Amino acid sequence: WRAVVSSTSLPVLLAAALPLKFMAPPITDAEQLLDNPDMKAKMELLILRIQKEFCESLEAEETSGKKFSIDRWRRQNEEEGGGITCVLEGGEVLERAGVNITVMRAPLSPKLQESMRARGKTLPADKNFEFFAAGVSSVIHPRNPHVPTMHFNFRYFEVQDQHGQNKHSWFGGGADLTPYYLNTQDVVQFHAALKSACDKHGPDKYPLFKRSCDEYFLNAARGERRGVGGIFFDDMESPNPDSDFNFVRDCADAIIPSYLPIVRRRKHEAFTAEQREWQLLRRGRYVEFNLVYDRGTKFGFATPGARIESVLVSLPLTAKWLYKHDPQPGSPEYTLTDVLKNPRDWV
Amino acid sequence: WRAVVSSTSLPVLLAAALPLKFMAPPITDAEQLLDNPDMKAKMELLILRIQKEFCESLEAEETSGKKFSIDRWRRQNEEEGGGITCVLEGGEVLERAGVNITVMRAPLSPKLQESMRARGKTLPADKNFEFFAAGVSSVIHPRNPHVPTMHFNFRYFEVQDQHGQNKHSWFGGGADLTPYYLNTQDVVQFHAALKSACDKHGPDKYPLFKRSCDEYFLNAARGERRGVGGIFFDDMESPNPDSDFNFVRDCADAIIPSYLPIVRRRKHEAFTAEQREWQLLRRGRYVEFNLVYDRGTKFGFATPGARIESVLVSLPLTAKWLYKHDPQPGSPEYTLTDVLKNPRDWV
Fewer C-beta within 10 Å: chain B N or C terminus? Predict the structure, then answer.
């Protein structure tokens, strides 16, 4: 063993140990990730760490003893990258939980070029583009209707033409909470944790991204938001990518303190069959938002060869629809829908 | 009474009786519908009749005694029309069944103008357009996994500018079957009934619209069709609108003979919890298709003030998602997915 150690350089040893730190070995060769100041490498290491920490903190709350299953996959063209999809289904606390990372580089389809141009990126029409994307995304659907559903996503994009010119790079992300019953304590705690991460990077961040979140997670046809919001940002492309990265990292590190205390506090609360039914109807609305409006899901459906099973771990295990199910004014269910129609300031 | 009759013209009396023939009074004033050769009136009378006949034939199969609830509604701006939404939820045979008619005229939103231009309609950019739409649409989700889900839709559109110029009118429609288990007898019967309606209007119709159906009801991201097809057509705008109308009428009249015998034959078949689970997972795919791909649902989400509850009666009562649930090769579930990936000719 000593002989091996002495004949092997320290970086190579560290690289060999790297897979053990995460849910599965990185998508990119470990040797390329370590001590690499390139943003692509930094982002991959961040999302690997966030995935590991979040999965472990959730497993600690799951009373059935079930663990996340770990599915490391490559795109059909293996050079285009792949991902690690961690799923826990049918638990006692976690009805369906997905924590997904993706690291991919692929040609940018004409449809996606168009949607990026529509959002203000200058991509000359006569070039072929390729993109790099690295992101972590997660949706947690607990079984108990008193525990809210939570989503977060942090991603880094690079786009450049085939000559390495016309380069753009940006960050996006956010986190939002979807309760079935309104517990102000939970909502305030969630927002406060995200706000304190934002505030480290300036007082303008939280108010701006809180408002973006209320605007983005809107089911326009229903005139209601998906939940009680959180933060949302996209196309973050400041002159200093490292400061953007630090912002993203701080937000990602705020997820566990924003959400896990709520799970812990509510997971043993008793609930009725009617409350469960209400939760499933609201999950129908979650499905509507994700399939009709969500940019990430649309990106998945529009990317040739996308791994649709990984995209759709965001959907609940079960959802229901009933014609014109409107809660009684004055009921707790009505209180929730009122907040979804009229977003509030929480902190 | 005699005095009333003799002082009242026959058309007015007939018009007064018209509401009794349908699930609810027509959307347009009954006096305007009778003996009116205008296609808008003919189409409204057709869809009112189809709705009534189909609801009654389904109620005859429902063993719980539950009947369709009838919801007649107007758009917020009442001059824009409205609809009649008939829903039966939570029956023994019919888990969720919706039969909807809509008759509306409204300004054509820029987004919808764009999508019509993309499909080849010449709509000059400097004009305001309004559209008229009359259609019947229905999705039946039975409780028993051995009874397929069935959808049909027949619609008539007119578009014209504010001066009544640049007018287009066309029909669209179709019917498709979504079984959970493949029973060749059912599929052949369904297709044969539609084929014989098509064949009255020329031997080219069924093969063409059968192929269109397989192309249209494709969940591209999954590489599988929604079901075993049927017929689908759109933008039918021949020089003779009456012959188009007759084609649509004959197809609509083929729905009951194409589907009801299957319901009758299968509704008492025993099924296991595993078969029910499989049905709910397939219903998840139905939700995916409707919310991501379906033109009618997109039209609903894109129409300002659309009645989203009526659009979404197409969704099942319950749907499920599980990560990478792939049926075992050789199982009946696998046999179904194989047909969804590789459409067949049935008649």
Answer: N
